[in-house]
């Protein structure tokens, strides 16, 4: 990842490790700008306030590795992005000082929303705000459903389809019942209009045909005079004026004269006159037929005018022309079918509603049962993880509770004799509860957990969910706030284990966590000429000791702090090495 002009960072290039990357630095040095850069690459909101003072724009560029055929690769292909030879995608996000933002993916300009679609498949950012979200019932239900996987996803999908039908039928029944008078009045008007149209029985385009026929019948004398004159001009006048010659005879005479010559150029013109002669003959023949069809028929003219008057009555009321009238009738017929307020129609709707409600209740119970089974497993797994995070005596329970419907709930569903709120995600509320120690009451995590404990609960959840989570990159922004001592060491150990299956990026202030890094980045702040700037660099082993000593003692160099830092690094290396056989065994199992 490359950052330019973002916050206090003037320019920095960052290469993240495939395992655990840790970012540290002094308070205010700009550590969180690394996470902000990832947010921007993930389609997050671009704010002008993030642009560095004196810079025209902030630019973040990153390279995502997307396996061929993965959902992220499909999103990129649909956006027209061109991957590099190794299959990776270059993502660029620019934010100007006026707040305008641009996004590029694989060399193509794309909407910011495309970056969001890709990032959903590639990266998950967890900050301190996520701890607050974890206290919400909807988030807790989402965590449980992620853990349960297809066992809940499949019946939940069926539940949502049935619920949509049930809500639609219930809404229609209520509307028909409550608005029966209005609907009956509207139905009467539609029936009257449809009956009037049916009595006239107009045909598509009939008004245009009648208009043309009426014009012919009314102007028959003028039309006969014009057509006969044209016909005489082509074929010649009647016998009484035999001395006059028509165009066809003149063309025939011209052909005869050309053929009588020996000049090739003149003879070449004759075929063209032959074509003209054929065309004139065809037109003359059609004129004769037209003249014969021109009969003065006052009775027919009267019929046409009367029919036009009937159609005009309809076009004045319902549409501008006959085709519009027929379309009005079609739409009104459909609308009339939906206005049936008869007892039979209402009874059928009520029957269908009750049938769907019964089916929906059955599927809702199936979803609840699967959630309850998964909740027990999730509680045990998280409790086991907390044991390694210096909360050995704590227990996490995941309760699946029926969500009782309010008195005026519009989507109340009767499930096993209880009126429950049938939301889009089922009829359950999910609550994470923490038992801090044996004998303590089970309290919701937002009430029974301190900030540090909440951080560890969230980390434990992430570790438990990691094997079911397809997102390959996890980012933690100071989620270890409020944690210290032995618990901090355990947090580092868990993050290192999580990094076996995921790319993990951690912004932390804890040396115990930083000691477990596969790659340690530090953000340095420098003040020059009244302007503060920060850079990011990779630490080697000796520099890591210095940085950890600073984090431990708050001083650039102390012998005690350095010794403690070296001890932390040695302990972390020993832990990671001890885990290596387990890691290799898991890799072999995956290959098999």
TrEMBL record:
Entry GO CC: bacterial nucleoid
Instruction: Fetch the Pfam families from UniProt.
Output: SMC_N (PF02463)
What CDD domains does UniProt report for this protein, alphabetically?
A: ABC_RecN
Where in the sequence does UniProt note compositional bias of the Basic and acidic residues kind?
A: 573-583
- Positions of the region Disordered? 573-592
Kindly state which keywords UniProt assigns to this record, in alphabetical order. ATP-binding, Coiled coil, DNA damage, DNA repair, Nucleotide-binding
UniProt family annotation: Belongs to the RecN family.
Q: Report a single Gene Ontology molecular function.
A: ATP binding
Q: Which organism is it from?
A: Kutzneria buriramensis
State its role. May be involved in recombinational repair of damaged DNA.
One GO process term, biological-process aspect: DNA repair
InterPro entries documented for this protein: DNA_recomb/repair_RecN, P-loop_NTPase, RecF/RecN/SMC_N
- What name does this protein carry? DNA repair protein RecN
Q: Residues in domain RecF/RecN/SMC N-terminal? A: 11-528
Determine the domain of life of the protein's source.
Answer: Bacteria
Q: Which SUPFAM superfamilies match?
A: P-loop containing nucleoside triphosphate hydrolases
User: Which residues fall in a coiled-coil region?
Assistant: 339-366
Q: Which NCBIfam families match?
A: recN
